[in-house]
Every structure is written in C-alpha cells, then in structure tokens.
Amino acid sequence: MEESTIQEVVSSQSEPAGAILVGILLSGESFEKLKEDLDELESLLDTLGVRVHGRIVQKRHRLTAKTLLGTGKVDEIKELAESYNADWVVFDRALSPPQVRNLEEMTCKSVMDRTGVILEIFSKHARTNQAKTQVEIARLEYLLPRLTGAWTHFQRQAGGGVRSRGMGEKQIEIDRRRARERIAKLQKQLDQIRKEKQTQRKARSQELKVAIVGYTNSGKTTLMKSLTRATVAGKNELFATLDTNIKAIDPRTRPKILLSDTVGFIRNLPHSLVESFKSTLDEVREADLLLHVVDVSYHSYEDHIRITRQVLEEIGAGDVPQLMVFNKSDLLDDPILPRVLKAAYPGSQTLSANSPEEVNQLRDHIYGFFRKNLVSYSVAIDISEQTALSKVYNNCLILKTDYDETGKMVFYVQSTRATMAKLRKYIVELEDDESSEEKSMEPDYVTD
C-alpha cells in the first residue's frame, strides 16, 4: 500500500477524496464534547478538500493497545469505508505508530490521526520560508517514529515517499538517519531565520505592539483588515493564516502602533507545532496588548477562550494584557448576550469585524489603552540634531511646538517611557501625574 499525503490524494483524483471519522467515548466523557471534536475534525478535513462520508463512535471503558478499538468495531469501520470507497480512516485521538500500522492492515485503508491532519493543513497553508521550515520540521518529527515497519525515502520536501513492507531493518535505519539529518539542517535554517526576525523586532522596539490571538477561524484576519484598512484577505477556513502579518493600525499615530495577526490556536494543538512556531509567536510574547478574538456565534465559545489561554500560558504570553473581543455579533440570535458578556468580561468589546462603526470603537479603545500609559514631558532640541528630531516626530505625540530663547525647538509631547529614555538628555520638564492626565485627554491620539 502506498504512503501519500492527503493533499497528494486530493490533487490526483477527479472526485473529492473521502474519509470515515472515528471517535471513542470513554467512561465519564461527554458525548456532546465528542460530537464537537468530530465536527471540528470534519472542518479540518474540509479545509483539505476531503469529504466525510460517515462517522463511527464506540463507547469503551479503556483503550486497547493494539488498535484503541475492539476488533469488531474495526471490522465495521472497514465495511463502512469500503461501501463509500473512502480513501482515509481518520481518528480524533492520537495514534501510536504501531496502532496506525495495525489499523491499516486490518482496514486496508490509509489511517491518520488528528495531529496528522493538522500538520497537513499547516503544510498546505505555509507560504514564507519561515513557515515552510517550521512545518517541515514538525512533520518530520511526526513521521520519524512512524518509519517502523515502513521505509520512506525523503525525496519530497514534506517527507513523503513510497511505503514498502518487509525491506529490512537496514533500510529503516537509513531513512531514520536521513530524517534526523534533514531535521538538523532545517533547525539550523530556522535558527538563522529567528536571528533575522529578532533583528527586525529590535528595530520595532520603540513602537507599541498589539497582537491578535484566538481560536482558529474566529475572524482574526478579517478584524486586522478592518482595523488597519489593509488588503489582507480573510478566509472562512481553519488555519488560513500561518505567517505573521504586521501593519500599522494608522500611519498617523504617534507613537506608532503596530498590529500583528498570528497563527490561530486549536484544541490538542500538536506540541511539535507549538515548539516549531515559537519564533513566529514571539510577536505575541513581546506584544504590549493582546486582542483575544472569540467567535461569539459558536455555542461553546467559552471552551475556545479556555484553550487559547492555555496556549498563551504554554508559549509564555499568559501575563501580557488582554482585551477580549467577541467577534461575529452579527450572527447572534440572542440580543441579550452582548450585555451578559460585558458584565462577565469587564472592558470587553462585542462587535462584527465587518462593521466599520464597531471597528472604529475598538480602535479608539486601543488608543485609550495606550494613552493612559503615555508620559507627558517637554524637550528642547537644536534644529541641527536631526536624529533626535526624527525620534520626536516618529515616536511622540506632539501636543505643542515652541521655541526657547536660544532658538531651540521645544516640543510638548507624550510618548512611551522607552522613547522618553532615548530623549532623556533633551528633557526640560517632566509633567506631574495630574497635568499629564489632563493633557492626555485633550488631543486625539491620531494626529495629522
């Protein structure tokens, strides 16, 4: 039986590829929760262009080491897959390499688990060199232990190849070595990319940074497009965005506020992907504010909130200030829910990313968050000191401009403490807290 990726099967067939979903309900687990997991798995497969022909669920007191399921249920899966001529049997639970091998032998179908499907989607949507490198590392690490009993020549970039059983341990060890060598080479490439990205982030260190985070397909990219008036295309599919997009919320703001859209989260996100994408998620860890976007039209949105917060903790961004943004309010049937959310999540915003008026309110809310933390002071700078003047014009909100008796330009400004530190030698007056608060409320955050 040939080993091929879902993408290869889909692209080689005139008819849509098909799959049978398999779920296992253990004692004490909720059937409703399992149904949600299978619904999400079906959405993942739909993103890959795979049609789900049917589902099979078995209740069990414990999982079996050989196949997770009982042999009778495996026979039922085989019959259902054959009746629909399905290409794949996809399990919602993680499968060990021996379990995959046993199930493929018993069903005569290709078998994949949830992790493998997510990796396929990440591979499909990777566009930049960084994303492609990260995904390939994760896929090779996923495939490496699955070489037992099957040998694979890593001729394709994603680690695909031809499976042939009974070729002997020598070929298996050769391919394991090739996989490890490829991973080591890719890791060096990724380390170099990380250094370059770190240099780019350092150049943006004076700007204020906002990162959009949330469960996949919650409308993050659409919200970014609306907030920045950018041409970033939002898609109604899972993991449409893998590469970090960075735009200024408004080019006229001083200090500049940068907004980044990052990869979406999902339950049971493979650990290898979290590790590989940590460099991409540096934008989240180093942000001054997180916009935690939630699809409020989804009935179990609180579960999405919990999962997103878990991932944020895992990547070291749990302490970054968050603004809850409940998106897709235009799809709500319950008119009372926005008021309930406001009470349950103080300071949160409920909106539709497609409503310009509501997005403007969110933008003002972001400005207000940063405005409260700006420092008011005045600096006197000689017109010959272009570097210092550039810092004022590019990184400060200028409230007033004047000249002193020596001809120096005097700027009454508000900025971050980081910018103030760079202009420290030019400071002639630092406002007290009361006057700072009064001044910060007078000018609009956006200046012409």
From TrEMBL:
Keyword flag Chaperone: no
Protein origin, superkingdom: Bacteria
Broad class of where this protein is predominantly found: cytoplasm
Binding site for Mg(2+): T221, T241
Keywords, sorted A to Z: Coiled coil, Cytoplasm, GTP-binding, Magnesium, Metal-binding, Nucleotide-binding
GO cellular component annotations of the record: cytoplasm
Record GO terms (molecular function): GTP binding; GTPase activity; metal ion binding; ribosome binding
InterPro entries: G_HFLX_dom, GTP-bd, GTP-bd_M, GTPase_HflX, GTPase_HflX_N, GTPase_HflX_N_sf, P-loop_NTPase
Family named by the database record: Belongs to the TRAFAC class OBG-HflX-like GTPase superfamily. HflX GTPase family.
The protein's assembly and partners: Monomer. Associates with the 50S ribosomal subunit.
The protein, known as: GTPase HflX
Organism: Pseudobacteriovorax antillogorgiicola
High-level lineage: Bacteria, Pseudomonadati, Bdellovibrionota, Oligoflexia, Oligoflexales
Protein encoded by which gene: hflX
